[in-house]
């Protein structure tokens, strides 16, 4: 196999910088306006569409919930919570409503499951990879994002409201916006130790 010619030093620096930026990603729970839109949002969605995908099924689907539609979405979640659990529904509905209200853009990531020789798990993994690629692009563009699931993600009524009927399914919601500045004394979460998570196979 031919080996690629090493890129010039300037390009290497650029690539290292790109990796360093990737390594600085953290989920952003506290978000504010603005959310990416227009060409920046297109870049984020395009990053999702670069996910690896066995069999070129292109199973990923992204549903954008933003602007005034968020109110209607919060109403849907509230109704779903009440139907799931009448006793705890009001509290769960309130929680969802608060999250939707303070999240400038929600990208619902789902998989439109294709029958055939590619196992379902691989299609779900591919949708997960699309979600991760979008989280990285969100970060690289200077925005913040967080992947959440919770009971809503597994609720068939919520899935249906987004166009995912079994075997198609949601893999989660990306909350997207501009990260709120963290308090100076907020604890820094260390990256996990490489040694604990990696080993050479020795037979
Ligand atoms: C599939 C999936 C579902 C998740 N669901 C939730 C969730 O419902 N609520 C939550 O607080 N964090 C959830 N998380 C975790 C956050 O997205 C995030 O990874 C975590 O807070 C760690 O932050 P970090 O990404 O900066 O390491 C989920 C992560 C994944 C991969």
UniProtKB/TrEMBL annotation:
Transmembrane segments: none annotated. Residues 33-177 form the Nitroreductase domain. Binds 1 FMN per subunit. CDD domains: YdjA-like (cd02135). Keywords: Flavoprotein, FMN, NAD, NADP, Oxidoreductase. Residues 182-203 are annotated as: Disordered. The keyword NADP applies. It is an enzyme of class 1 (oxidoreductase). The keyword NADP applies. InterPro entries: NAD(P)H_nitroreductase (IPR052530), Nitroreductase (IPR029479), Nitroreductase-like (IPR000415), YdjA-like (IPR026021). Its cofactor is FMN. FMN binds at residues 25-27, 50, 54, 147-149. Belongs to the nitroreductase family. This is Putative NAD(P)H nitroreductase. It comes from Reyranella soli.
